[in-house]
Amino acid sequence: MAALRRTAAEGTVEMAASPTGSAALRGPLPGTGSTVSVLTATAIVVADMVGVGVFTSLGFQVKDIPSGFSILLLWTVGGIVALCGVFSYGELGAMFPRSSGEYNFLGRAYHPAFGFLAGWVSATVGFAAPVALAAMAFGEYGRAVLPGVPPLALAIGVVWLVSIVQLTGVRHSSTFQLVATILKVVLIVAFLVAGFMIATPQPVSFAPSSSDPTHVLSAPFAISLVFVMYSFSGWNAATYIIGEMQLPERNLPRAMLSGTLIVLVLYVALNAVFLHTAPIDKLAGQLDVARISGSYIFGEVGGRVVGAMICVGLISSISAMMWIGPRVMMTMGEDIPALNLFARRSASGAPVYAILFQVTVASLMLFTRSFEAVLDFIQFALLFCSFFAVAGVIKLRITHPELPRPYRAWGYPITPVVFLLVTGFMMYYLLTQRPLQSALGILIMISGLLIYAIFRKRPDQPATEHPG
Q: I want to staple 109 with a disulfide (CB 3.0 to 4.6 A). Which of 84, 131, 387, 392 is the partner?
């Protein structure tokens, strides 16, 4: 077996390459300090998952699935599929406890070039575009609270405010993230309690009926599951900060599992409240279902109440993405001399240049509104990377059974196969329904490979041995 070595900023990563050219971890990883608790890591997962998707998607689902039971089952299935991904990522993260998510996993399960491809997508637009989208949503919902302030000003302001917090260091970021996420969950729970206690119940049943099998086995159910899974995206957020976690081999799986279960319960409960408080015909085809539900719960002030709740929630989401996104560029900077500027940290542990890079890209997207187009064509690339990360669990079980596995994926091989089937369907849906956007996503990945090839040819790049 040929040894594959890379000199990083804080140490040397030694990898063993199989005869097929795949790579697996064989040595110690660069450490970044263990300062993030399992509670904070759980807060990052919850904050990254709960955005605006759950507050806007029900209206399009009930158009074709007018059944309370089927709708709640739809969101439950989405949560179960996310949990299947959690189990696989937990095994990979415990094996390879280094920040940067798929950049780390794909590089070790397959080849460093594959990891760079994933890192290129994430570091350039994969987080900046969702940050810009969340910030613009913050600006739009913020008009209900501050009607005189332009949405763009609110959007730019919240991105830079959160970025300043991130620049102060990991300790302050942890406190801010924890407080913002707890406040977010408390407000959602208060909304749920008010919905069930105050509002006039609608004639909707959550018990199964004879028509539910038809709904569940229909094409609209399968297509709706695609968009439900987008709402659950973010369950892997803690894998981007593994290097900063205390006891990552144990706490990473716990954080992802706890966070995903919390969000699963919140999502099912929120959809139940929306259906419980507002007539289905008023929700069908509407984007702002949370506002409609809020008007039935709180009357005329319902819009402001819901707007304030979503704004607080979006602050924690933006904070989570502004924390984890720069860690990808930071880790790439540790491995690639041409990018070593982004690996530099402040005395408080913040990757300053990586954070400034992401906030600059997100701000440019806000000014040009290009984030909407970018989001369309990075979806396929992000699904592609997560698909192969989970497939990497199966591959490594076969090709490197001797590697230490502090955590083993629960339900293997069923859980990774379930995740692969659903993610494969989502990619097929995007390829058939959005072929142009998917093709652009593929081009972004190819551009990452080309840039990787250029970096590899630089004379200052560490030498890498490949099997013959």
A: 392
Look up residue 359 and give its two tokens: 């906030």
346: left (phi over 0), alpha (psi -120 to 50) or beta: beta
* Nearest by Cα to 319 from 167, 104, 94, 191: 167
pLDDT in the model for residue 321? 95
Give CA–CA dist 43/258, Å, rounded.
Answer: 9
Alpha carbon of residue 137 to chain centroid: 17
Picking from 445, 460, 444, the residue whose alpha carbon sits closest to that of residue 335 is 460
Residues 454, 8 contacting (CB under 8 angstroms)? no
Q: What is the pLDDT of residue 8?
A: 31
Distance CA 65, CA 86 (A): 28
The candidate with the shortest Cα–Cα distance to 414, out of 13, 14, 81, is 81
Burial of 300 (0-12, 13-18, 19+ CB in 10 A): exposed
* Residue 29 in this model has a pLDDT that exceeds 80: no
**Structure tokens belonging to residue 302:** 């319902």
36-457 CATH? 1.20.1740.10
Q: Which residues make beta-bridge pairs with 24?
A: 16
Sheet holding 11-17, edge to edge: 2-8, 11-17, 23-25
**Closest by CA position to 78, among listed 426, 427, 430:** 426
Residue 16 φ/ψ, nearest 5 degrees? -105, 125
pLDDT tens digits along 292-344: 999 999 988 888 888 889 999 999 999 999 999 999 999 999 998 888 999 99
Sequence spans of domains, the chain: 36-457
97-118 tens-digit pLDDT: 999 999 999 999 999 999 999 9
- Parallel/antiparallel/unpaired status of strands 11-17 and 2-8: antiparallel
Query: Measured between alpha carbons, how far is 307 from 37 in angstroms, rounded to an integer?
Result: 31
